[in-house]
Write a structure and sequence with these properties.
- This protein has 286 residues and is of the alpha+beta class.
- Helices cover 15% and strands 34% of the residues.
- The strands form 6 sheets. A 5-stranded mixed beta barrel has the order 3-4-5-8-7. A 4-stranded mixed sheet has the order 11-12-17-18, with no helix packed on it.
Length: 286
């Protein structure tokens, strides 16, 4: 048994030979989401700390991103801008799911207990789910090249997210010579009651390529399978189209799902775009 002193609290850490993980845990409350991989937390005794999620790295929201760290993302301003946007999405995902919640920190015997700037390095669990892993699995984070017990499973999840070009990995297509459609904005929380203001609940798609794209027959769906299918529409380079959940008259810039109730969960969901042949074009979790 190893004993550590964390912010005045004595924490007993037990290492199991089978996994080399530290199995004891620490309960804290998330007071602020700094960005997708960094949280400010408070202990039960009122003291505070900052946690850097172990083994993962989300795109920067305050500084400039380095596309070279994201395999396949072009080292251009477009690539940097795309990563910044994805960093904001990762931060929003963590705020929606964890801010104000009591979470469990787990530490790893293969990793340092603290990293740069004295921040705790930990796995973050909430509702039984490993949020470090969830970020990688959904393509909102890359695996940070370091030593930690779960690296094999994280790299496997990263490879799947890369293949599907989920979230940040979709930035690989920015500036392609052909056409590319991305999910540029998700406005899941309409003003007031979502069900009474359906047209303020919307998703924005953008043609980020250099050629026009016919999206006729393409679909947009949520995690539960609710699906919208585009009728005749072609997006020019740089053009956006906003899909509102409510009713209205379709134009080249705004289309309407015609739902009687809200589609997008305010607490988190996944937007999936599929072309007319059934191929995944873009996905974004929030």
């Amino acid at each position: 048994m190893t004993v550590l002193l964390v912010c005045g609290l004595t924490v007993a850490l037990v290492v199991t030979p089978a996994t080399a993980e530290i199995t004891d845990s620490q309960q804290v409350t998330v007071t602020n989401v700094v960005d997708g991989d960094t949280l400010d937390v408070q202990y039960a005794n009122g003291t505070t700390d900052t946690v850097r999620l172990l083994g993962v790295d989300t795109p920067e929201t305050y500084g400039e991103n380095t596309p070279d760290e994201w395999e396949g993302v072009p080292n251009t301003q477009a690539g940097k801008d795309c990563l910044h946007s994805e960093g904001e999405n990762a931060k929003a995902f963590m705020k929606n799911n964890l801010e104000g919640k009591q979470i469990t920190l787990k530490f790893d015997s293969e990793s340092d207990h603290r990293g740069y700037y004295g921040r705790l390095l930990a796995y973050v669990y909430y509702g039984g789910a490993d949020y470090n892993y969830k970020l990688v699995q959904s393509g909102q984070a890359r695996v940070y090249d370091s030593t930690f017990t779960k690296s094999d499973s994280y790299y496997s999840a990263e490879a799947s997210a890369q293949d599907a070009e989920q979230n940040a990995w979709g930035c690989r297509n920015v500036g392609d010579s052909g056409g590319s459609v991305s999910i540029s904005r998700i406005h899941e929380d309409a003003a007031g009651n979502d069900n009474d203001n359906l047209n303020d609940e919307y998703v924005v798609l953008e043609n980020t390529g250099t050629t026009s794209i016919d999206v006729t027959g393409w679909t947009v769906s949520d995690e539960s399978g609710k699906t919208y299918t585009f009728s005749s529409l072609t997006l020019s380079p740089g053009q956006t189209v906003t899909l509102h959940s409510g009713s209205g008259s379709d134009t080249n810039s705004d289309v309407y799902w015609g739902r009687s109730g809200a589609v997008w969960n305010n607490g988190g969901d996944t937007v999936s775009v599929t072309d007319s042949g059934g191929t995944s074009v873009a996905t974004k979790a929030y």
